[in-house]
Design brief:
By secondary structure, the protein is of the alpha/beta class. It folds into 2 domains: 151 residues, ATPase, nucleotide binding domain (Nucleotidyltransferase, domain 5), CATH 3.30.420; 172 residues, ATPase, nucleotide binding domain (Nucleotidyltransferase, domain 5, 2-Layer Sandwich), CATH 3.30.420. Helix content is 40%, strand content 18%. It contains 11 helices and 10 strands. It has a 6-stranded mixed beta sheet with strand order 5-4-1-2-3-6, sandwiched between helices. Strands 9-8-7-10 form a 4-stranded mixed beta sheet, sandwiched between helices. A hairpin with a 3-residue loop joins strand 2 and strand 3. Helix 5 runs parallel beside helix 7 and helix 8 crosses helix 9. It binds 5'-O-[(R)-(carboxyoxy)(hydroxy)phosphoryl]adenosine and zinc ion (ZN).
């Protein structure tokens, strides 16, 4: 079963070919991040425009890199939600057109579910990938943490899962991005805050961890505001001082301390809940997925509190990519899940798990 996966939910235009749900044959990701960086975040119109310009080439490159022709492709899988409407539309319309013209089955993929499936890729001949040694064993507890999502999911089997909890406001990656902005660090904020935190004192500031009604739900807006107030106080200003003017007045040491203290609190927030679920459900596998899983500190802190090895994959498969979409597409095809209608498949920007 050879599946072409197409992903365009945010600012990455991505396509990949995966065989049998474990073998990565190609993975092409083109990010419009450089165009977005000047604005300190993703501008939906810029992202959509970039997808239009890039998608045909990215798909061709994915086939080339896999040494595939259209004859070799058994099915097409595409992200149809959640994500930015304009961005999703480009991937979905491309996939629909290809499914019709190349006469291939089409599978509609939930982006967040896809993130977890990146961990099912165990083999590749592509250079520069560090992959898990074996596929996750069910039941799987998945902590999916990205720029748009923070989810804790219990998979009993393929296509049999329960969403235990999720972010009620900002996602964790979004909080990293906003804190980076306050500290004057480049977008995307995850890697920049992580870098700035090195050498900082993580106990310099005690930021709050939100208490929510849902046992496994998260919230990050409180810590984000606490970072803003702390940064204002550090430069001797009150809450009326504009956030865009703070960074220039903070010393490198103050920035490092704020970054380290924020990172510790944000990570502990998700790790605490993951451990709670680990103890309650006793899964055979705990995996971490999504862009924030690329942060070594979140993996280290989660692993430290688990009695089984944490499953995680190469950072290139943690951030948005087509391989995770193709992998889930393989499982849908191999397990006879319903196909999408290429004439009617619509986008679902607010799709939940
Ligand atoms: O999964 P992803 O590529 O896109 C979404 O589905 O949202 O995740 C992007 C997010 C961004 O917020 C970025 O700041 C964060 O992942 N990220 C990181 C790291 N690398 C990317 N966060 C923390 N540490 C990192 N090393
Ligand atoms: Zn994502």
């Amino acid at each position: 079963m050879i599946v072409l996966g197409i992903e365009s939910s945010c600012d990455e235009t991505a396509a990949a070919v995966v065989k049998d749900g474990y073998k990565l044959r190609s993975n092409v990701v083109l990010s419009s991040m450089d165009l977005q960086a000047a604005y300190g975040g993703v501008v939906p119109e810029i992202a959509a425009r970039s997808h239009i310009e890039a998608i045909d080439t990215v798909i061709e490159q994915a086939l080339d890199q896999a040494s595939c022709t259209w004859d070799d492709i058994d099915a097409i899988a595409v992200t149809y939600g959640a994500g930015l409407g304009g961005s999703l539309l480009i991937g979905v319309l491309s996939a629909r057109t290809l499914a019709i013209t190349k006469n291939k089955p089409l599978y509609a993929i939930n982006h967040v579910e896809g993130h977890a499936y990146a961990n099912f890729i165990t083999e590749t001949t592509l250079p520069g990938y560090t992959l898990p040694g074996k596929q996750p064993e069910f039941p799987v507890l998945a902590l999916i943490v990205s720029g748009g999502h923070s989810q804790l999911v219990l998979f009993r089997n393929h296509f049999d899962y329960t969403l235990l909890g999720q972010a009620q406001d900002d996602a964790i990656g979004e909080a990293f991005d906003k804190v980076a902005k306050i500290l004057g660090l480049p977008y995307p904020g995850g890697p920049s805050v992580n870098k700035m935190a090195v050498g900082g004192d993580e106990n310099a500031f005690a930021f709050p961890k939100a208490k929510l009604a849902g046992k496994y739900d998260f919230s990050f807006s409180g810590v984000k505001t606490a970072v803003l107030r702390t940064a204002q106080a550090q430069i001797g200003k009150d809450f009326t001082f504009p956030s865009k003017d703070i960074a220039a007045r903070l010393s490198e040491a103050q920035k490092a301390d704020i970054a380290a203290s924020f990172q510790k609190t944000a990570i502990e927030t998700v790790v605490d809940k993951a451990i709670l679920a680990y103890e309650e459900f006793q899964p055979k596998t705990v995996l971490i997925a999504g862009g924030v899983a690329a942060n070594p500190e979140v993996r280290r802190r989660l692993q430290a509190r688990l009695s089984i090895p944490l499953t995680w994959t190469d950072p290139k498969l943690c951030t948005d990519n087509g391989a995770m979409i193709a992998t889930l597409g393989c499982f849908m095809a191999m397990r006879n899940r319903p196909m999408a209608d290429p004439y009617t498949l619509d986008i679902a920007p607010n799709l939940s798990m």
